[in-house]
Amino acid sequence: MKLFEVYQLWDIEPVKGSDTTLWDKDGEVYTDLYGGHAVISVGHCHPHYVKKLSEQLSNLGFYSNAVQNHLQKDLAARLGRICGYDDYALFLCNSGAEANENALKVASFHTGKPKVLAFRKAFHGRTSGAVAATDNPKIQAPFNETANIVFVPLNDLEAVDNELAKGGFAAVIIEGIQGVAGIYEPTGDFLNGLRTLCDKYGCLLILDEIQSGYGRTGKFFAHQHHGVRADIITMAKGMANGFPIGGVLISPAIKPVHGMLGTTFGGNHLACTAALAVLDIIENENLIENAAKIGEFFEQAFKDDKAVKEYRGKGLMIGLELKEEYVGLRNKLLFEKHFFTGAAGAGVIRLLPSLTISQETAESFVKAWKELTV
Ligand SMILES: Cc1ncc(COP(=O)(O)O)c(C=O)c1O
C-alpha cells in the first residue's frame, strides 16, 4: 500500500533530536527553528520528558475515560495555576482542530445559538466545524459549507458589531496571533472591543491559542498581553512537545452535562504525563521568560534587516516578510546553512523555535541569515 499523498515533503529524514538540533538519516546536522509547526516547546528529547514518558509507559499507557485518572486532574490543576485561568475547567482531546471543534460545540450548546463569527485569513483546523471557520475555500469540501459561519476582517470592530447585531451568534473565534496567515496580531483595543461586543450580544469569546499559546509569545497566552479574558481557550501544539493532545479551557459560567462531549483517546495516561512534563520544564527552566528574551533579540536583529519588508509577531512566534528579491531565502537557509524554518506562502518566513532556544543558537541563525543576504 502507498501513502495517500497530501503533503509536499522535503527530501530530508530526521532520525534523532536533541534540544534544537536534528540529525538526518545520513548523519547531517540541522538546527530546528520551526519545531515541527510550533509543536516542540521544550526541545527535542528533553531528558526529563523522556524519563517521565518512559516511566509512565512501563506502568500504564492507556485506559479510557470510564475510570479515574488522577493525571488528568493533576494536569488541570497545574495548567490552571500556570496559565492564570485557575477557576476554568479543562476538557482534553487529541489535536488543535478537535479542541476548536469542541469549543464551538460547547459555545453552541451553552447559548443555544448556531452561528459563529470568524476572521479573514483565520486558520482553525481541518475537522468540519474548525475548517468551516477557516478562511480558505481550498481546504473546505462541499460537505463543510455552512451559512452558520461569517467572516469579517481582523481588527475591524465595526464589522464585528454589524454582524453580531443580526443575532444568532454563539461565539466569536479568534487566534491569539494569526499563524498560518503569516503572523498577524489582533490589536489590544480590538480584543478588548470584542470582549465588550460578545457580552453585549450574549455570545462567547473563543481564543484559539493552539499556535500562539503555551508561553511562545512571552506570556502563557498571547491574548494576555492585552489584559482580555476569554470564555473558552483552545490549545494543542506546544502542550505535550509532540505527543498528540488538545485542550479546551472552559469558563465556570458554562456548566458541563454528562455525555455533552467525549473522546476515546483524549486525556490518556501518556498524553497527560507528557503535558505535565512540559509544564515542569517550562517552569523549572523559566522558558516563558526565555521566549520573551530571545524574541526581543530576534526583533532587534531583523527589524531593520535589508531582506525584511516587515517584522511581525511576539516572542518566539515570528513572521519575517521578505522583500521580493529574497523570496528564495528559506530554501537557502535549509540547504546551504541547515536551518529548519517555516513559511506562510512564498514571501513570509515563520520562526517558531523551541522555547529552550539558546542565545548562541539564535545568534548562529542571525549570522547564517546575514551571510546569505550580503
Ligand atoms: C491557530 C491554529 N488552530 C488550529 C490548528 C489545528 O491544529 P491541528 O493541526 O493540531 O489540528 C492550527 C494548526 O496549525 C493552528 O495554527
List its salient traits.
single chain; 374 residues; alpha/beta; Aspartate Aminotransferase, domain 1; Aspartate Aminotransferase, domain 2; 2 domains; seven-stranded mixed beta sheet; four-stranded mixed beta sheet; 11 helices; 15 strands; binds pyridoxal-5'-phosphate
Task: Tell me the layout of helices and strands.
Blueprint (H helix, E strand, L loop, with lengths): L13 E5 L2 E4 L4 E4 L2 H4 L8 H13 L10 H14 L5 E5 L2 H16 L3 E5 L8 H5 L16 E4 L4 H8 L4 E7 L12 H14 L2 E5 L23 E4 L10 E5 L18 H16 L2 H16 L5 E7 L2 E6 L6 H7 L3 E2 L1 E3 L3 E4 L7 H14 L2
Parallel strand pairs: 3-13, 5-6, 5-7, 7-8, 8-9
Antiparallel strand pairs: 1-2, 2-3, 4-10, 9-10, 11-12, 12-15, 14-15
Helix pairs in contact: 2-8, 3-8, 6-7
Bound molecules: pyridoxal-5'-phosphate.
Can you offer a commentary on this structure?
The protein is of the alpha/beta class. The protein folds into 2 domains: 120 residues, Aspartate Aminotransferase, domain 1; 237 residues, Type I PLP-dependent aspartate aminotransferase-like (Major domain) (Aspartate Aminotransferase, domain 2, 3-Layer(aba) Sandwich), CATH 3.40.640.10. Helices cover 34% and strands 19% of the residues. It contains 11 helices and 15 strands. The strands form 3 sheets. The chain has a 7-stranded mixed beta sheet with strand order 4-10-9-8-7-5-6, with helices on both faces. The protein has a 4-stranded mixed beta sheet with strand order 1-2-3-13. The chain has a 4-stranded antiparallel beta sheet with strand order 11-12-15-14, with helices on one face. A hairpin with a 3-residue loop joins strand 14 and strand 15. Helix 6 packs parallel to helix 7. It is globular. The chain binds pyridoxal-5'-phosphate.
